[in-house]
Amino acid sequence: MRKIQLMTSMLVAGVVYAGGAMAADADGGALLKKNNCLACHAIDKKVVGPSYKDVAAKYRGQADAEAQLIAKVTKGGKGAWGSMPMPPQTAKADEVKTMVQYILSQK
User: Any signal peptide, and if so, which residues (predicted)?
Assistant: First the structure.
């Protein structure tokens, strides 16, 4: 009986965790749309700027990737992906963090 209770608890915890991750993904995607990021970027193809999958691949494994991208989004940048500059974005700090986490989660 204890094994069943333990397995049930683990299953419920897994579903809750996965649901939270899916909600964060949905929030990140919605924020990218709300802040007009999709005018220059797409998940899987280059538009004006790089695809989010390419960005995630470039920064994968870097401990400071999130901080670097938050700085690039808020301050703008030039030269990392070509000559086209990215203007600074005016989204709220918590929204930028959620968007960057979503971008870095792309595989």
Answer: 1-23
CATH class of residue range 2-104:
mainly alpha
Alpha carbons 55 and 103: distance in angstroms, whole number: 7
Q: Is the predicted pLDDT of residue 26 greater than 80, yes or no?
A: no
Is 86 within any annotated ligand binding site? yes
For residues 85-103, average pLDDT: 96
Is 22 annotated in a binding site? The answer is no
Please state the domain extents for the chain. 2-104
Give the pLDDT confidence of 29-60 residue by residue, as tens digits: 999 999 999 999 999 999 999 999 999 999 99
Contact 34, 105 (CB under 8 A): no
